[in-house]
Write a structure and sequence with these properties.
By secondary structure, this protein is α+β, with helices and mostly antiparallel strands. The protein has three domains: 82 residues, no CATH class; 30 residues, no CATH class; 239 residues, no CATH class. Helices cover 15% and strands 25% of the residues. The strands form six sheets. Strands 12-13-14-21-15 form a five-stranded antiparallel β-sheet. Strands 1-6-7-8 form a four-stranded mixed β-sheet. The chain has a four-stranded mixed β-sheet with strand order 2-3-4-5, with helices on one face. A hairpin with a 5-residue loop joins strand 3 and strand 4. About 7% of the residues have low confidence.
Amino acid sequence: MSEETTNIKLPHMSTNQAQKETTYNEAIDKVDFFVARKILAFVSALPSSPSEGDGYILTTNNNIAHYLNGAWEYYTPADGMDFLCVADQKKYIYKNSAWAEYTPSIKVGTVTTGEAGTDVEVKNSGDDINAAFDFKIPKGNKGDTGETGPQGPQGVQGDPGLSDIATTAEAEAGTNDTKIITPAKMLNKLSARVQRSLSYTWAELHTKISAGDFSGIEVGDYKDITLTSGTVMRMVVAGINTFKGTGYATGADGGTPNHIDFISQDCYPTSHTVNTTDNNNGNASQTNPFMASALYSWLNGTVSALLPSDVTAVISNKSCLMADRYASGSALTDDNGWAWKTPGPLWLPNEVEVFGVDVFSTRPWSVGGGGCNKQYEIFRKYPEQLIKHTTNGGTARANWWLCSAHSGSSTHFCIVGGDGAAGAAPATCADIYVPLCFSVI
């Protein structure tokens, strides 16, 4: 038997070997590295002071370098190996003797006609990375036209059919195109959950939104931004016209105009308390607990100052019905009213906007009315978006703040736990994070 494995050179233990744990531990460390499949960067020369477990890919020979037990280990890549590069948050795959960015795609391949009576066939003529779906659709039998017979008795009503399929006459006439099933529409169903990067600039998005033109934009699509601190944030479309017409914003009819609300896929990489004391009440000048908080001031001072200029040029304050919790000389344990507010430019969603119901916040003030405080479609369609991480593209799950104060308490605010469940925490809890949230109107 050889002394090591074929692909990543894991050491084998030999019969009667002393200190087997050394060999075993070395193998486990290598397995840990290749299971995580994460490197720090592509480099031409390795750093002089690496940390244990660091990994790099050498641009000089494509080899993988792994700092293990105080020394560099080198591995020759095999076709199909892939690694996440922390430096640019992109995945790379080794193929045809070179590392290339992993960019999966889906497209329609060929569309052919099969014999009548055969089954529809859909085959992938591409590969696991670049899929190309070929469709084979059977033709129908065409019979002779017979004489018209007498009308028979009316039969029993059948089961409801599909409401979004065109009739034969509509299809042949080219009318009612939205109901004609095509391979492209079938492909859209297959790829419905694939997130897409928006190619529009922020200025172009603003123009489209203002005009009510949401073509090419869907909930779940994203656009990456780089803060002036260098931090990258992936901003995801959370809702399109979720609150149009509500409130007293800048629309021509007095209500909220066309808009898209963006919520980052992961959290800003610095945690923060809501307040310096365990207090979830508003004050005389600002009766909403969140807008009166130190967290709100930090978001719209320190953090908003880091937004790139092309983003700040197009975002606007959000108009929403928010809970009041204030009485002079008292520490209230429940909300006692609501009022229209315009938080921003950065804000946080409330409990109903995330979960669709009030779990720990105060009914009825948490629910709103007139189309307000609805659940964002991103959390209804893709509940995995409840799980956010402490850094963009990271692996450590984050607890993250909501703007709702906890019912039955004068000290706690509502949160989303690292497991995606509703929860609450004291306002002074220092290890809770926030996503970036803003509105483009």
